[in-house]
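User: Sequence recovery, please. Input:
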């Protein structure tokens, strides 16, 4: 593991009623070059075009693919992800979004904060996720 993940846990233990399976931690201790990711939305990184879906799962897949692509372009990987902040426009999408996000952070254990907001920058967006990564020296 790239960074020290303090008090690792899985959401299936913390939120058993929600049927989630996300590897998270209470704290992450890291050294290296910091990468601050802009909030990623369900749009193509090159064209800024929205994906053609109003499904929270499909939107989350695109968001997490963007995060992975940006980290790789910066010389890192998902293993370097230390923190994510998840913004949802509807709390009812929480399980679907977190379940999908969990596929990308399995074994990583970042810290995570979730926020429900009134709206995002484009009306079609259901989810936005920003992240902070540290690429080791």
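Assistant: Recovered sequence (137 residues):
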């Amino acid at each position: 593991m790239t960074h020290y993940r303090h008090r690792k846990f899985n959401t299936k233990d913390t939120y058993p009623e929600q049927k989630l399976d996300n590897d998270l931690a209470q704290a992450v201790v890291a050294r290296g070059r910091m990468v601050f990711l802009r909030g990623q939305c369900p749009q193509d990184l090159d064209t800024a075009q929205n994906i053609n879906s109003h499904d929270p799962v499909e939107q989350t897949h695109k968001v997490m693919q963007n995060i992975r692509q940006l980290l790789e372009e910066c010389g890192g990987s998902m293993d370097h992800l230390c923190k994510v902040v998840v913004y949802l426009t509807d709390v009812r999408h929480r399980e679907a979004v977190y379940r999908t996000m969990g596929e990308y952070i399995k074994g990583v254990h970042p810290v995570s904060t979730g926020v429900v907001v009134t709206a995002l920058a484009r009306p079609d967006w259901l989810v936005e996720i920003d992240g902070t990564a540290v690429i080791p020296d």
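DSSP finds three helices and six strands in the chain.
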